[in-house]
Amino acid sequence: MTDLLGYMLWFAVLIGLAVPAAVWMNRVYAGVPAFARTERTILRMAGIDGSRGMGWAEYAIAVLILNAVGFFLLYAILRLQGVLPQNPDGIVGMSPDLAFNTAISFITNTNWQAYSGEAQLSYFSQMAGLTVQNFLSAATGMAVGVAVIRGFTEPKGATLGNFWTDMIRSVLWILLPMSVLLALFLALQGVPQTLLGAIQATGVEGQEQIIARGPAAAQIAIKQLGTNGGGFFGVNSAHPFENPTIASDLAQTWAILLIPVAFCFLFGIMAKDRRQGVAIFASMAVMFVIGLATIHLYETWGNPLLGSGANMEGKEQRFGAMLSSLWAASTTAASNGSVNAMHDSFMPLSGLVMMVFMQIGEVIFGGVGAGLYGMLLYVVLAVFLAGLMVGRTPEYLGRKIEAREVTLAMLAFLSMPLGILVFAALAVTVPAATAAIQDAGPHGLSEALYAYSSATGNNGSAFAGWGAALPWHTTAIGLVMLLGRYAIILPMLAIAGSLIRKQPAPESAGTFPTHGPLFVTLLVLTVVILGALTFFPVLALGPIAEETARLAGQTF
Amino acid sequence: MFLQQFRPALVLTLGFTFLTGLAYPLAITGFAGLASPEASEGSLIISGNEVIGSRLIAQPFSGAGYLHPRPSASGWNAAGTSASNLGPTSAKLIADVAQRRAAYETENGQPAPIDAVTGSASGLDPDISPENALAQAERIAKARGVEAGAVLDLIETHVESPLLGLYGLPRINVLETNLALDATFPLPTQSPGN
Known about the structure:
The complex is a heterodimer.
Chain A: H1 2-30, H2 36-45, H3 56-80, H4 96-107, H5 117-120, H6 123-153, H7 163-189, E1 199-202, E2 208-211, H8 216-225, H9 246-270, H10 274-301, H11 320-333, H12 348-359, H13 370-390, E3 395-396, E4 399-400, H14 403-427, H15 431-434, H16 442-456, H17 471-499, H18 517-551
Antiparallel strand pairs in A: 1-2, 3-4
Chain B: H1 2-35, H2 37-40, E1 44-47, E2 50-54, H3 91-108, H4 114-117, E3 127-128, H5 130-135, H6 137-144, H7 148-157, E4 159-160, E5 171-173, H8 174-184
Antiparallel strand pairs in B: 1-2, 3-5, 4-5
Helix pairs in contact in B: 6-7
């Protein structure tokens, strides 16, 4: 009962923060006069006319070039970190395949960790490499999100906006100020923020212990706010240095979901019909609550094979089952991928919920910007299905959804089964790949399936017993992360570019309303049915098989 | 169109590397160092010139006179963290837990709470549950030659409660409580690893 009260209060605070954030973001993307001079100076130095709007193709090319430059710079930093400054612990350069994987991981907002931060990254790499891409990949997602919203909502003949302007505004006026506040709060809670290297301690019973530390608070703030998720330390936000207190834990879960939730409301504001944003939010919230409740109940009931009490294997005492479940649901729904407990050791059906959240394409709040444009993909499909059922040309916000948009939406959707099913199938059959599997039985399949679901969804969390550092996987997962990012961004920008050329028709008696409970139901069913049809068979072989085995008392 | 976009990409990446990759973390380092130097350097516990450990990081304890931390898959390695990551139907996990339970019950003569037999997520969990701590009290009291009640009372004063009564579990910081035990009831003969 107190758990339920806790969840309700947590949700109320989240919405209470997200609504004003959405209002602020709307002002920022429209251009705040007081910031105009700063923006103009930066744009002039970069050689851009920031007021000129872009077509979808130009917007997409700007996205790709920024991310490509980011990739090469980050790759170089990771390879050369041994000779670069701010390396008090004498960490050597990364291997080529691991640096490839890590650089892609951070430009695509995935933050898959095939490395362990305290052992394989210098402070320079953490700050000037990873933290920068935490900002830029988040700003990329937010800019694309805003451009896609413009495509759906701006009048005919308008443009999708200017990528460089949107990107700069995302960093300077949204991500950076929020990160400063959160980083200072975390530092006061006990998250280290120091340039001093690891310290040697001599314990009470005389044992030597080397304690790694570093400038963690600044990076953790943006890793949560930008739905990045890459931890400063190997065990991520389960590490007492990354997440020392209950207050730091709550602040981080709010930070994970703040901007993704705000994007729903931003959509309503930009559509000049707030009900549209509330409908999208409600669709996401329904799925989130069902998933969260499932995880919470299974983790609280615990694992009778381990003894009575909650399932505490891979969980921290200060968080227990409730805060670990809340985090697990939030981080997989929001494409964040940081963890405060080890997902590999969660109960089978808790793992199933987390995998489904990622496999449907990270559209339950999802990544910053990315969650909203991902959900708009399903909106296109949902109104198309509704149109088929009643025999009318489907419309959304007054614009006709035609063959071109539906084709593009299906193309984007297919990147999920391609990345997840095809590559996970390779991961459990190719000899060079199967060595990564740690657990025997159906859980072993779940480990590989989780990895490729996480990579394709640009999530970044893992069933971490799985050996992500095998060269096969660093390479294959690198490619899948690119697929999961750009094979969605490009078609969604194309859909936006196509819609903005259409004249919105005025609402009539025959218009299918897209803001009521009927539409919410339709949208949720579209997501669930498409996701279930695609992934149910393999989920039956992994987590569902494991659950039935567990109930029969079988172990592996 | 490609070349035209290349310059802004390069200039902005370098500019933001300076702003978000250097200025931002260094400014936070500066502020944190002023506002809370102790926390920003890792909440270290220092005695004289010796660093004993960090209040936030578990360290191994095996002596009979001390509270023992939760099991750690990494052996309390604070320079390379990891967890067991074993799944819920793993035979190895179930065997490990059974073995830890038997050892705990032999050592303490009390049933083992779930947190005492399961590995933490970080391998560095600084806390244990109050039930776990209280079950160890009699063993500690015996090793220190004091009344069990006195040790129980000391442990009770170190219980940290859930936030607002809603969030998180009640817990006891092992290192701080062990230091308090040493200060209040010194070990009769210093025999570490007893």
